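Late entry, written up from scratch paper. The run itself happened at the end of the previous shift, but nothing got recorded in the book at the time, so transcribing now.
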Amino acid sequence: MLPIAMVGGAVFYPWMDYVTFLSPYLIFMMLFITYCKLTLHNLKPDKFEMTLLGFQMVMAAVVYGATFFWNHILAEGVFICVFISTATAAPVITSMLGGSISKVATYSLLSNSVIAVGGPIILAAIGDHAEMTFIESFQLILAQVFPLIVLPLILALILRKFLPHLHEKVKSMQQLSFYLWSISLFIVVGSCVSFAIKNWTPDSTWTMIWLSIGSLIVCVAQFKVGRKIGGRFGDKVSGGQALGQKNTVLAVWLALAYLNPMASIAPAAYVAWQNIINSWQLMRHQSQTSLDGATS
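Output as recorded:
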């Protein structure tokens, strides 16, 4: 279903402007359903989250330094693909793959907090322009990210406390998150294709190609390294999703606000790469689950 959603979004991109407004509502509902599986004591950062965060920051600096003197637009593009926080929908995919929702949800909260505070400072230092003050940037990032992460969590915890029967009913509807994610993916891919086409010029062709290749390399690297780090803590799935699945909508916005606008092509391409990987992982997990069920 995810490849069909991506292809459909690419085909119907001219009409995405009419449905883009639905994306935050879909993400909110996905997270609300997923967070109904959590309890408050699950959300405590530990060595797992701090190790991932440390590697993420170091890797962002390394990829920027390694590519800056060759192509500064490419450097900005791959940097934002690594530096940006975990996708708000990462706990949903993690749940489908059998990973720890609480670990990924905790890391999502942690990484988004770091980006909200440190992002304006770091991006203003390396970027080509910055029309906003730190306070304005901080408020805009909070306004974009935290309602989608914190509010569904608060609502799920309130429901658990005061309406346990309704909470259990919502908790049993986890499969619905997948279909909501597929619709959201259709919209996001269509929006990214529309963005790339609107910003294309003949002179920018090779830059766009290199940005797409660079985002593919760092995408695969983050999933693989995340799984290795997660493996040390007994959860490869959570490590891979926490480090590899990115908040690309926020990344595109930050690139446009602080960096060379062309650099935003990298996180736009990252949408396709991370969801191709997610599709492959989900198909492999489903096949393995079916095989285990047949042999048991």
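The chain has a mean pLDDT of 83.
(Scratch paper discarded after transcription.)
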